Amino acid sequence: MKKSQSWLSLIPSLQQLLHQGVCKTDNALSKQLLPLLTGIAALSTVSPNANADNEHSDSSLFVASRPLLQLREMLNNDNEAMAAILATVDEIRTPWLNIMAARLKEAGKMEQPERLVQLVSQLEGAAGWVESALPNAKLASSQFSDLERRLFSTVAESAQAIPILCRILAAAAWLHSRRQPLPAIMPVDQTGERPDFNWCKGRLLELPQRQTNEKKSNKNDTLQSYLLSGIFDKEPQSASNQDPLPYVLMNPWLFLLTSIVYTQDSWAAEHRGGLLLELSSGQNPFCPNQIQVLVASNDGDEILCGSLAELILRWLERRQIYLFPSTPKTGELDSQLGLVVQALLAKKIWRYYDGLSGQQGYYGINETFGDLCYRRLGSKIFQRYGKTIWQEFRILAENWAMEVRSGSHTTTIQEGAI
To answer: Is the whole model's pTM more than 0.85, yes or no?
Structure first.
């Protein structure tokens, strides 16, 4: 059997990790993956379905982390990301380094040095590896041609592979310096009643998305138990029109945006400044493309800081929670949030208020839902387990306003957004 075959067997698990943020493997396969994924994925041997009769799981779970997301941002596609992960293994990397060293020797013989400088620059941290491989430089096929065709769509010694190898080796060198094991991460509380567990450091949050029939059929999939779901329209069995709080709690994006209007309501009660969520003219208030965030000072001055998406991205950064599969541009996230706001309005969790003559409309908490937040379950969530979540929105808003006042921040609000 070719050497490529043993490494090709890891591809499905790596693909699953990149596509879903979590991969489940048997313990034998996890031993092969562990040295590859240390520092970029957390290992959990705790199964969400484990019970007293099944204390010892025969499978392991790897949960993606921020370094894995950063790796994807460096490269052109997931195939290159998988190749970079595999290139951290000496056995695989060595023949690729020898091929790259031969390419550098070729470039060094050219009359103009630009090509050599370009290649060395593209190699970044891997340049030292390639320099060490110069004595063994050889432009010949490796033992991993099947693996290369699978990930490069060509073989490593071909001319088409030169830029691919540069990117992969540079990323592998970056990964090589990040080999500290990551702490295990707890499964998500699907009821949402423990936001302190759910919104913890290192957690991944999927981008907002509606529930499809396919996702409904996979709603109990254990692979999704470690990521905060991006689905914002799941209906809990216990929810009712009279008590929408369970609906909010089990949908992370709804909870996050509800925490913002809870912050707004609590702050307004002090009559000392506040947080405003305004809608510029020309937009549909029931599915906005962009909501403006303004912060009012103690003396009543209102400062336009930016958009709702910017506020959320700042909060996620503070919490060290990361969007999966990648962080979109602010305008894209603002547009996606419009559908979340639509769901909040439909369930009477948020409320839209028309502005007075010459003033813009704005959003706030629905009074009926606001009352629920101070009853038994709501008080447990917002005053106990989730207190730091909404309080951090206020801290961020105040700091943001200070930045704008000092001129150290530029807003991304688009005039007349529609």
So the answer is: yes
Cis ω before 325 (30° cut-off from 0): yes
Count CB-CB contacts under 10 A for residue 128. Answer: 11
Distances (CA, A) of 175 to 9, 68, 229, 252: 21, 9, 27, 31
Residues 168 and 232 in one domain: no
- The residue range of the domain holding 386 is 195-406
Residues 152 and 119: beta-carbon distance below 8 Å: no
**pLDDT (tens digit per residue) in 62-110:** 999 999 999 999 999 999 999 999 999 999 999 999 999 999 999 999 8
Same domain assignment for residues 241 and 130: no
Domain-embedded: residue 99:
yes
CA 349 – CA 366 distance, rounded (Å):
5
At CA 233, angle to CA 246 and CA 374, rounded to 5?
Answer: 30
Q: Do 166 and 249 have their domain in common? A: no
**Closest alpha carbon to 165 in 94, 72, 67:** 94
Please answer whether residues 190 and 225 qualify as being in contact, where contact means their C-beta atoms are separated by less than 8 angstroms.
yes
Query: Angle formed by the axes of helices 308-319 and 387-406, to 10°?
Result: 120
